[in-house]
Amino acid sequence: MDKEELEFFRALRAMAFLEALEMQAEMLKRLAAACCPESPRSSAERKRLINLAIENCKDETVLQWLRENSESGTFRKLSDMFDFLKSKIDEEEKKNHDDTVDIIFVAHGAIRDSMIPAKCLLPLPTITDLVLYSPWNCATTPEVTYGIATGKMRPQHRVFHRRLPLPFFFHGAIVVHNYQPLNLPNYWNSLKKAGGRKIPNIIVSPLQEDERVWKKFKSLSTKHGPPGRNRIVIPFILPEESESVPFSVVALALSLVLLSSRFKATVHLDTCLSDKSTGQKSDRKYLQEQYYCTEDNTGMTCSPDAFSVN
Question: Most buried among 79, 81, 147, 197, using CB within 10 Å?
C-alpha cells in the first residue's frame, strides 16, 4: 500500500469515527430528554390538549395517530409549544388581519428516521394546508426565509447549489453553483394534496436572535419591505435553550391555538429538510414520487430578482 492509499484509508477511518461520535451524541441527547421527568402540570395539560384535539379531529387516520401516541414521548413538549404559539397568536389577533391568514414558521430543521402520514401535520380544520418549500434532503438559505415570509418567492426563483467533497487528501470541498436538479416540480409541496401518503418525520429546533438567518431576514425586510397584511411570521426563538421537537407537535399545538382564535391558516414551513437520519436514510425513490428528493449536500436559495416582485 503506497502513502497516498494509506492517507486515504486513515481519512476514511477518521470520518467514520466522527460520524459514530455524532450518532452517539444524538442518542445521548434523546436519552437525556426522555429521562427528564415531566411536571404534573405539563402532563395534565398535555392530556387535556390531546383530548381536545381528539374531540375536534375529523380524520380517522389522524385520530388513530393521536391515540397511539398520546402516552408516548412524542407529545412531551405539546403544552410548552401551545403556550409559546398562543402568546404569538394572541398578539396577532390585536392586529388588522383578516380571519384567514398565512403563518410562516421559521426554524432550523431536518428529516429523521421515522415516517408519518402527511395529514397528521394538518390535524384539525383550523390549518387548511401546510406548504413545504425545500425538496426533501435539501438545505435552505436566509434569502429563502424572506422569500417565503413575503410570499414573493415562486418556483422559478429557486437556485440550487451542491457541495461536492474533494478527494480526502485535498481536505475540502468544491461548491457547484447553479446546480439544477432534473425534473423538479414547478410547484410547492402541498401536504393537503399529499393526504394519507407518508412523509419523513420533520424535526425542528430553535433559532437564536443573533443568528445569521434571522439577522438577514430583518436586513432584507428593511431593504425590500416587511411581510404584508395577513402574513404572520413566527420565528422559533425561545427565551431559554431548548431541545428539538417533532414538527407534528408544533402543528398540533398551532391547530389547537387557532381553535380558540378567529383565524384559519395556511402554514408555510421555512426550514432545512436535509436527511439527518441516524439509521438507514429515507427511501429516495419514494420521496421522489411524493414530491422531490435532491442529492446529498444540496442547498436551495432564492434569486434576488424575486424581491422586486410586488
Answer: 147
Cβ(45)–Cβ(219) below 8 Å: no
Evaluate whether residue 35 is within a structural domain.
Answer: no
Q: Which residues of the chain, if any, have pLDDT below 50?
A: 1, 3-23, 25, 27-35
Q: Report the pLDDT value the prediction gives residue 293, as an integer from 0 to 100.
A: 96
11 with 169: CB under 8 angstroms?
yes
DSSP H or E stretch at residue 225: none
Report the alpha-carbon distance of residue 173 to residue 162 in Å, rounded: 10
How far apart, in whole angstroms, are the C-alpha atoms of residue 43 and residue 37?
10
Distance (Å, whole) CA 121 – CA 145: 20
Q: How many domains in the chain?
A: 1
pLDDT of residue 176: 74
The pLDDT of residue 74 is 87
Output phi, psi for 52, to 5 deg: -65, -40
Q: Does residue 47 contact residue 215 with C-beta atoms inside 8 Å?
A: no
State the cell numbers at 189: 409541496
Whether 252 is covered by a domain: the verdict is: yes
Answer whether residue 15 is part of any domain.
Answer: no
Is 116 part of any domain? yes
CA dihedral 52, 123, 76, 30 (to 10 degrees): 170
Q: Which domain holds residue 175?
A: 40-308
